[in-house]
Design brief:
Length: about 200
């Protein structure tokens, strides 16, 4: 009987090991995203999509898209309610303008602060960088993508477009996502970060 139980346990362990797939991803960011999307407590995916989920599609990491931008703060901006994909209108403020060079051209984007989020522990220095580019509707989500940054002590901020991610409403319409302001359009292809999601 003891041997039968040991055999049964061994078979159970092996079958569980076969079911458990390794977390895919070239970088820590990609592996973390894939792990979160597999996790039912964190994933924005619909149940049917999550059950068949193997991993998100990412562009290959490219250091070209890690840029050091100059941050020009705009302290006198008036807070505003940012439009979203639903009736929700969260309060944001334009924190400044980031200027950077990419592929030999100079670009500018407005960078924002979520006034509700900044009151949460660990997010007091969080900056929100939504953007549109020439890949939208083709290889990336049509509504644009987001990058997260932190307020620097000086006027230099690192923007890593390899960490560009889709709004949650790209996966599930129940989410309310900020709509990227038209002025945050980049006249270039940002072939970095998360690609468009192929639904099952």
């Amino acid at each position: 009987m003891k041997y039968y139980l040991q055999f049964f346990l061994l078979i159970s362990v092996l079958s569980c090991a076969q079911d458990k797939q390794p977390i895919l991803g070239e970088t820590e960011f990609q592996r973390k995203m894939n792990a979160d999307f597999k996790d039912a407590t964190k994933s924005p995916l619909k149940d049917k999509d999550r059950k068949e989920f193997k991993g998100l599609d990412f562009f290959k990491f490219d250091s070209t898209y890690v840029v050091t931008a100059t941050l020009t703060r705009t302290p006198d901006e008036t807070p505003f309610r940012m439009k979203t994909t639903t009736d929700r209108l969260p309060m944001y403020v334009k924190y400044g303008v980031v200027t950077f060079k990419l592929k030999g051209k100079t670009h500018e984007l407005n960078i924002y602060q979520d006034l509700d989020l900044k009151n949460q522990i660990g997010y007091d220095d969080y900056l929100f960088l939504p953007f549109l580019d020439l890949t939208n509707g083709d290889t990336t989500y049509g509504g644009g993508r987001y990058v997260e940054c932190r307020i620097p002590e000086d006027d230099k901020v690192i923007i890593d477009f390899n960490t560009a991610y889709n709004p949650y409403c790209a996966y599930n319409e129940k989410y309310s996502c900020p709509i990227v302001p038209r002025e945050n359009y980049l006249e270039t292809k940002i072939e970095a970060g998360v690609k468009a999601f192929k639904k099952h």
